[in-house]
Amino acid sequence: MLKYIFKRIVTMVPMLIGISLLSFIISINAPADPIEKLAKASESEGSAQESSVASKEIKQQLRKELGLDLPIFYFSISDLSSCDTLHKVQDRDHQSNLDKLTHKSGNWKAVSSYYNSLLTLQRKYGKINVKDITKKDTTLDEQNITEAYNQFGIEIANSLSKSDKEYLDISFKKMFQLVNSNNFLISLKKYVKKSSELRSTMYSNTSKWKNYIPSFNWYGASNQYHTWLFGDGKYRKGLLRGDFGKSYLDGQKIETKIWDKIGISFALSIISILIAYLISIPLGIYSAYRKDSTTDRVSSLIVFILYAMPSFFVGLLLIFCFANPDMYSWFPVSGIQDATTFNNEWSWWHWEALKHRAPYLVLPLITYTYGSFAFLSRIMRIGMIDVINQDYIRTARAKGLSEKKVILKHALRNSLLPIITVFAAIFPMAIGGSIIIEVIFTIPGMGTEVFNSVINGDYPMIITVFTISGFLTMIGYLVSDILYSVADPRISYT
Q1: Cα 136–chain centre separation
Q2: Is there a single domain that holds both residue 122 and residue 266?
Q3: Which of 235, 249, 288, 403 is the most exposed place for a label (fewest CB within 10 A)?
Q4: Which tens digits make up the pLDDT trace of 279-295?
């Protein structure tokens, strides 16, 4: 057995690597830009210009902390025209646009010169202060000046993020019109002209044949995946040391946010599963032993009805009936404690804490339990019926053993195998919680946290739950395999 456990643990390593790699791929392909989301929580106050400068500095720092200024993986396979340093470009849209332009021209040097000229134009544009201009010349219409200034900024931004030639022709035409018709923009004319010339060079000096020649690039350990998994020794500890990154919503560390919430979901899930097993196993045994009796038929009907009822419907029905002043206000409608009377110094398993929380947990636990109880009782019944009809059960009865001993000692042990299989799903469920149930009862567990993360696009939180659930699923199956051999001595692992 120990040898088998060791082998399973060893085989978990490549599976864990696969899970981590899949999680990483999902994270880097998430639609949201993490820099933009995290930067919002750190935006500075002041003028628009000052805020822009501060925002740029914040984004640069965040890129370093998240390792986004590094290549994605240990190596890359691309074509000869592609640039292997695009990861250093801050803006994700700019990266995509530069990649498109490079493949259209096959000349990265020309694309790079064109892009840098646009950045120079943008910097020069940012130094122009409309208020100072209107103060110096009171004859100028501030509204018209502002509109022209903003329109010029839009055209620069479009040029940086668009690759379509016809679109860029229109954009540059508008910029030339604006600098020619507004004296305060005349200083930018030479920069617009230079960018236009470099754009023409980019389209004329093409090397599209490079798109068809493969290129291999090696980056070593200095890449995003390595940093995400092992840390960088400065900003991140790495996934293997429990560092799951930062939340996009508030910039807090993921492990800090989920610690207490995992405890709540774990406690509720484990308690509900224990209750479900304690009810379903005896009921399944009795239904199998009294097969096709009136009691079996009635219990089967009730169980099927319960299993068919959606959890959100049951939860809302319980709230309506037993947490409603117009019906029976026996239990609190939401939450797990009263904030005014609960002592935060109590631990979760403190007697006073349990006594205080008990009324709040009755309805959620019923909602958690009824579905599992109905499902497990049917599995137990089917497994017991199959075992009862086996030859060794008839032999045990022929030997004169009591019916109780035959059922509990010989039949029960072997009929537990399907139940043990279901047990493998407990671990990930206990961590992930139930989204629907926790949202309905306003329970601050992992289910609610995952729901909020999905709604707000907090991908690090979603990926963390996915990674932990994958790991715990493997642990669950390992525990199930061990329990198989305990329940049935005929099963051995060599």
Answers
A1: 53
A2: no
A3: 403
A4: 888 888 888 878 888 88
- 223-266 tens-digit pLDDT: 888 888 888 878 788 888 888 888 877 778 888 888 777 778 87
306: domain CATH number is 1.10.3720.10
| Structural domains in the chain (count) | 2
Residue 50 lies in a domain: yes
Measured distance CA(344)–CA(348) in Å, rounded? 10
Residue scoring higher pLDDT (142 or 125): 125
Both 302 and 349 in one domain: the answer is yes
pLDDT at residue number 389: 79
pLDDT digits (tens, 9 = 90+) for 360-402: 888 888 888 877 778 788 888 888 888 887 788 788 888 888 8
Which pLDDT belongs to residue 51? 47
Residue 3 lies in a domain: no
Output the pLDDT for position 174: 93
Residue 111 covered by a domain? yes
Do 146 and 192 lie in a common domain?
A: yes
The residue segments making up the domain with residue 51 are 37-230
